[in-house]
Amino acid sequence: MTTPTEQQNVADFYDFEAALTKEEREVLHRTRAFMREQVRPLVAEHWAAGSFPEELIGRFRESGLAGLAYEGYGEPGPAASHVLTGMMAMEMSRVDASVATFFGVHNGLAMYAIQVGGDQEQRDRWLPAMARMDTIGAFALTEPLDGSDIAAGMRTTARREGDTWVLDGAKRWIGNATFADHVVVWARDVADDQVKGFVVGKGTPGFTAEKIAHKTSLRIVENADITLTDVRVPETDRLQNVSSFRDVAEILRATRSGVAWQALGVMIGAYELALSYAKEREQFGRPLAGFQLVQDLLVKSLGNITSSWGMLLQLARLQDAGVFRDEHSSLAKAHVTGRMREVVAWAREIFGGNGIVLDYDVARFFADAEAIYSFEGTREMNTLIVGKAITGESAFV
């Protein structure tokens, strides 16, 4: 079967790539080539084994793709636009959503938390090495008993003792945590009941991260259960510009759109596989692509991809203009991940029985879509954010 990533992006039916400058297109094409040549050959085996290919960290380091969104910390020049970084996330997920998630946790959540929440000394201390991927970051917010209600229900605590903070609690579903050099941990200050951020270094006494086993989605990602027992962190490692959960929400507002771009990439990857298979697989003496019902599934898939891409392109432009709001990213996350679910199901349907065999790849996209549908805000939570914005009424319990 023809490998879709050897082609240009055949799902770009309206030529959205034309929105990029010449220099941005070169970066996007470099991302596409990196994922095709360095990542794609590894993913099926590691997805089946539920293991992370550690050699990818070195390959990403050599690629120079990290840190582009952070002026002064990535490649020389101004920070990359949200249009470019969104399409980069899409290209990564087009090949593998797990690898895109690893990159997004490090390059998005962890680095952005330090960029926004840290003072200048902290940014200069941590971000250069993270931009080079000499060190890897993780972001620890979700807890075993609190996900959507984490703003009010956070149980991990921080208490100050002189110039030191003592952290106690647990976190769950923390990507990269088993091998990360720096984990941004969010905890509730027992003194003022406000959420604060702390950068906990690898090997800190009292900090343990245990890989979550038996996942059926994003199996390459090293999600972990974290336990914090009398973890001592110096005041200099507390993010100085974070004083409440409102600051955490600012970070999530920006990174939520990146998850929507990942969902678009998953749609495109599944669609390309289905299109290629339909052209080559014959039944009743003709290619599957020659049947009306198969064409219907392909066209509906392309429609979902195209409408989602247009939405995300405008969202990225709002971000670049500095005028986007919570409800903008929430609508995109809720809508695009819903369309993703439809596309991966239609793609798997076109493969018939072969669609459940990893050798054909589409099963991986089908399974990975479920995690993307849920993390960084469920459809229900994002719907309520948008609902409040358009009605003026809060329907949160």
UniProtKB/TrEMBL annotation:
The keyword Oxidoreductase appears for this protein: yes
Residue ranges occupied by any Acyl-CoA dehydrogenase/oxidase C-terminal domain in the UniProt entry: 248-390
Residue ranges of domain Acyl-CoA dehydrogenase/oxidase N-terminal in the record: 21-133
Domain named Acyl-CoA oxidase/dehydrogenase middle: residues: 138-231
Pfam families: Acyl-CoA_dh_1 (PF00441), Acyl-CoA_dh_M (PF02770), Acyl-CoA_dh_N (PF02771)
Matching InterPro entries: ACX4-like, Acyl-CoA_DH_CS, Acyl-CoA_Oxase/DH_mid-dom, Acyl-CoA_Oxase/DH_mid-dom_sf, AcylCo_DH-like_C, AcylCo_DH/oxidase_C, AcylCoA_DH/ox_N, AcylCoA_DH/ox_N_sf
Cofactor(s) this protein cannot do without: FAD
Keyword 4Fe-4S among record annotations: no
Keywords, in A-Z order: FAD, Flavoprotein, Oxidoreductase
Family: Belongs to the acyl-CoA dehydrogenase family.
Name the UniProt record assigns to this protein: Acyl-CoA dehydrogenase family protein
Species: Streptomyces rameus
